[in-house]
């Protein structure tokens, strides 16, 4: 049986930081013990592979609970396939992604799920699971939710935005929440008042305000806060937990904090783009601002401090990427002269672990909190723990050796995502992935990708393990 030993690193989990050696067998962590102690004697001699991690961090692989590989949007498709996107994720120290399968209006959840399996199966370099986007809440799709939960698709995204595409009205949302309360499915909410936003879009375009920066203005922070408030109340009435995706506005975060102070099972996710980028980027000239068009939108810089505080106080529990890349050339350009036609989404699946490590360096969060928000809590939230999100006996050996002192400059020249720009072009970060194991198999080894498409397995999930 193939054994791997990781020697001499600082093992960091959400719970602990210990100088320990890690023994891996058959793709799983078998044991951790004090470095070079009597307990680890003989481990290296019997191992097929010994990884020297002296001076490095040994961390659980990142769990990115929000990606959109090949998502059809605005007449085009997100530019990363499961093959290119999962490989880029591995380069960045992420070993599990949860992507969103999409139900099309007039079709079943099963059809949507089958379509996403056809895109992903045998393509991924790392393990993956699916959430389901509910675009058409009706008697049949509500019944199907029960079946999907049993099969391991245990979370369902609803949209208060995008009328005519993914939008659900309050009645449909309430029904889905009631069903989730009964079957254990976690409702994920895109909380923006899309009906009001569409009025503001129409008015802006009619007044000749067509540049990318108006995307940020019409998607008002108060319309994120209002929708967040409404989603919380609907969840309360339905008796269901609620997970609000891509929180960007301080006012929306305040709604989550109020609900959590009442002891409600209300959770929030934010993304690196809201922590590191702002409306200044949306206002970049020569249509460069289109590179930063996503929804919820980037906010004025002042919101960032509130988001960091939310991550420290646990009013926000998860940082995912909402990775949804569109090339500047040919894709973002669809919206020249009309910001509402710019496909929404930013690349980032490769950058998340590094940017959050930079947040450790900058003093925003601790090392253990880094692992908590990027690996452990997403795994618990979406029913993957302790198989994913930690380093403990029995866990999958999804492990990253991380060099906390390496310096790098983020750039489209060197990234591995299939997109022609980086949202973080030129940003210096301290820290870099050195080695990535997925179920004990090397995927990244120094500067080389040594994994393969199809190594990544579809991973059915349990229900939310984070409820109060
Ligand atoms: O702009 C974004 N976030 N695009 C992806 C779809 C979504 O709403 O998450
Ligand atoms: Zn159909
Ligand atoms: Zn969304
Ligand atoms: Zn998304």
UniProtKB/TrEMBL annotation:
Annotated positions of the N6-carboxylysine modification: 157
Alphabetical keyword list: Hydrolase, Metal-binding
Domain of life according to the entry: Bacteria
Cofactor: Zn(2+)
GO molecular function, one term: dihydropyrimidinase activity
Any GO CC annotation of this UniProt entry: cytosol
Listed InterPro entries: Amidohydro-rel, Hydantoinase/dihydroPyrase, Metal-dep_hydrolase_composite, Metal_Hydrolase, Metallo-dep_Hydrolases_sf
Keyword Cell membrane attached: no
Stated family: Belongs to the metallo-dependent hydrolases superfamily. Hydantoinase/dihydropyrimidinase family.
Name used for this protein in its record: Dihydropyrimidinase
Organism encoding this protein: Actinacidiphila oryziradicis
The organism's taxonomic lineage, starting at the top: Bacteria, Bacillati, Actinomycetota, Actinomycetes, Kitasatosporales
Gene: hydA
């Amino acid at each position: 049986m193939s054994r791997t030993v990781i020697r001499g690193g600082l093992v960091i989990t959400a719970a602990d930081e210990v100088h320990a050696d890690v023994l891996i067998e058959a793709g799983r962590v078998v044991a951790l013990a004090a470095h070079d102690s009597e307990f680890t004697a003989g481990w290296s001699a019997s191992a097929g592979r010994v990884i020297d991690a002296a001076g490095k961090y040994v961390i659980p692989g990142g769990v990115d609970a929000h990606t959109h590989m090949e998502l059809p949007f605005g007449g085009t498709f997100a530019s990363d396939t499961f093959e290119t996107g999962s490989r880029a994720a591995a380069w960045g120290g992420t070993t599990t992604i949860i992507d969103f399968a999409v139900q099309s209006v007039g079709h079943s959840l099963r059809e949507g799920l089958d379509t996403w399996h056809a895109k992903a199966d045998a393509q991924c370099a790392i393990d993956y699971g699916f959430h389901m986007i509910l675009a058409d809440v009706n008697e049949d799709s509500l019944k199907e939710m029960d079946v999907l939960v049993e099969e391991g698709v245990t979370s369902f995204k609803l949209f208060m935005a995008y009328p005519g595409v993914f939008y659900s009205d309050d009645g449909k949302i309430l029904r889905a929440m009631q069903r989730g309360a009964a079957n254990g499915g976690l409702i994920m909410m895109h909380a923006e008042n899309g009906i009001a936003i569409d009025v503001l879009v129409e008015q802006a375009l009619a007044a000749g305000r067509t540049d990318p920066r108006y995307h940020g203005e019409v998607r008002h922070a108060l319309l994120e806060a209002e929708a967040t408030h409404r989603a919380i109340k609907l969840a309360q009435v339905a008796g269901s937990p609620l997970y609000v995706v891509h929180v960007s506005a301080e006012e929306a975060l305040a709604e989550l904090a109020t609900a959590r102070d009442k002891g409600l099972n209300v959770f929030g996710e934010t993304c690196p783009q809201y922590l590191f980028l702002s409306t200044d980027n949306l206002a970049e000239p020569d249509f460069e601002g289109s590179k930063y068009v996503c929804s919820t939108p980037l906010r004025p810089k002042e919101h960032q401090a509130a988001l960091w505080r939310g991550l420290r106080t646990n009013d926000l529990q998860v940082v995912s990427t909402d990775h949804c890349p569109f090339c500047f050339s040919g894709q973002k350009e669809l919206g020249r002269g009309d910001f509402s036609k710019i496909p929404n989404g930013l690349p980032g699946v490769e950058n998340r672990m590094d940017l959050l490590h930079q947040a450790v360096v900058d003093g925003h969060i601790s090392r253990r909190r880094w692992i908590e928000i990027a690996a452990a809590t997403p795994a618990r939230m979406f029913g993957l723990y302790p198989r994913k999100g930690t380093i403990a006996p029995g866990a999958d050996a999804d492990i990253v050796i991380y060099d906390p002192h390496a310096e790098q400059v983020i750039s489209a020249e060197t990234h591995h995502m299939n997109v022609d720009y980086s949202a973080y072009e030129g940003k210096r970060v301290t820290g870099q992935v050195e080695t990535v194991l997925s179920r004990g198999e090397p995927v990244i080894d120094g500067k080389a990708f040594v994994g393969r498409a199809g190594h990544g397995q579809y991973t059915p999930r349990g229900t939310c393990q984070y409820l109060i």
